[in-house]
Write a structure and sequence with these properties.
The chain is an alpha/beta fold. The chain has one domain: Aldolase class I (TIM Barrel), CATH 3.20.20. It is 44% helix and 13% strand. The protein contains eleven helices and eight strands. Strands 1-2-3-4-5-6-7-8 form an eight-stranded parallel barrel, surrounded by seven helices.
């Protein structure tokens, strides 16, 4: 069986919601329509960028339903179901299976507590046992394993596990993981600022936060790379990274706040990040817009 199911550019979609946690369906539809028109292949929802672990299971299920409805077969939805409560994770897994998600993904439970490698393997066995959908492991710097390729190899022995979203900035390790299972592993790059590095080391595509505001540039990078035009791919990565530097400077603990603020300035009613995340003054928003405009972001 070919495990390499997903390729190309897949935004880690932000979750638009109001102050009561209600999903803003109109904004979801607008964002998905725009991103698809820019050439993305699909979306990764309710992960870290989508603030999944910080919102209710009910809100996450609604986001999944709205997203799948908005895509209308034009792309795929990978639903991140990881949650602090295993019962929520299993409920979200079953829900994703029922509504037409293309795959599920999950952070390991070690993201919240320090479990052993054997315990994490059992976690993924439990998740995979609840669905017939493909399962992607979410490998982060907090993934606890003495030998990451061996650990991923153990996970690949679980039925339905097809690969990993690799969000570790160690491309020597990425290549070692890509060679697991004879190379029959779906490996997707996580860090936006080094997408090109991931592609060079064998990643099949990318999932990222800042894809939300510059999907076309990431699509351009990916196309240039697959066409063998490394110089153009580099130019896209450098341009992207200048924007990421601004988003990081305005963001707090990442770019979720600043990405949502930028989308709001673009006219998308996405709301704010989950409380108590930072909100911006009118002056901060004006400064953010000015800096991003200078770098070529259109409002």
């Amino acid at each position: 069986m070919d495990n390499i199911r997903f390729k190309g550019i897949m935004p880690a979609l932000i979750t638009p919601f109001d102050e009561n946690g209600a999903i803003k369906s109109k904004a979801v539809n607008q964002l998905i329509d725009w991103h698809l028109s820019e050439g993305v292949q699909g979306f990764y929802i309710c992960g870290t960028t989508g603030e999944g672990p910080a919102i209710s299971a009910e809100s996450r299920m609604k986001m999944a339903e709205v997203s799948i409805g908005a895509v209308k077969g034009r792309g795929i939805i990978i639903d991140h179901i990881g949650a602090p409560d295993i019962h929520d994770a299993l409920r979200l897994t079953r829900h994703a299976s029922q509504i037409g998600a293309a795959a599920i993904a999950s952070l390991p439970p070690a993201y919240f507590f320090k479990y052993t490698e054997d315990e994490v393997v059992e976690y993924y066995k439990t998740i995979a046992g609840e669905t017939d959908l493909p399962v992607l492991v979410y490998a982060t710097s907090m993934t606890s394993a003495a030998n990451l390729p061996r650990f991923i190899g153990r996970l690949m022995e679980i039925p339905n596990v097809i690969g990993a979203k690799f969000s570790i900035r160690d491309y020597y390790e990425m290549r070692r993981v890509k060679e697991v299972n004879g190379g029959n592993i779906n490996l997707i790059n996580g860090p936006d600022e080094t997408l090109l590095c991931g592609l060079v080391m064998g990643a099949d595509g990318g999932i990222g936060s800042t894809y939300n505001i510059m999907p076309g540039w990431f699509v351009g990078l990916y196309k240039a790379f697959t066409d063998g035009d490394l110089k153009t791919a580099q130019e896209y990565q450098y341009r992207i990274n200048r924007v990421i530097s601004v988003l990081l400077r305005y963001g707090v603990n990442g770019v979720v706040n600043s990405t949502k603020a930028a989308l709001g300035l673009m006219g998308y009613d996405v709301g704010h990040a989950v409380y108590p995340a930072k909100t911006y003054s009118n002056q901060e928003l004006a400064d953010l817009r000015n800096e991003l405009e200078k770098l070529g972001i259109q409002f």
